[in-house]
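Entry for the shared binder. Reason: the reviewer on the internal report wants the predicted structure included alongside the sequence.
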Amino acid sequence: MSHLILAITTCLCLFVSSVNAEEVKSQEAIFTDAFDGSPIKTPLKDGEEETPALKEFKATSVNPYLGNEEAIAKGKAVYEAWCVACHDVGAKGKMGPSLVGKTFKYPQTANDVGMFAVIYNGASGAMQAFSKREITQDEILKLISYIRSITPQ
């Protein structure tokens, strides 16, 4: 049974990652669990602000911080605080998988909506749900902008 669930999830992830980026631009973001594909909700924490960038991302599936040097710098700081221990410098992978380059292999995180869902909700194995940590959804968007800015070595 677990093999069937894994196969179905893999197929769904491959389908989601194959969607043309132009088609995604006008679609509301739908976040799904990395393990079983079920929809996940992304409520704000008490006191967390829904920034204009977060609102735009959830409405369009487009991360407005991509290419924004200030956001990338803030995303790098988040990465160094929360991610480098598992994903290593340059996101090349360590205990956790590579997030860039030839060894990158997770279809769900090939697009920003999928990566947001995995960071927010966690995944099977050691990938923790950052919704339960002191990181905001806006910081997740900046983190993604940093990861997308990395040139694989």
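Summary line for the report: Confidence is low (pLDDT under 50) at residues 2-24.
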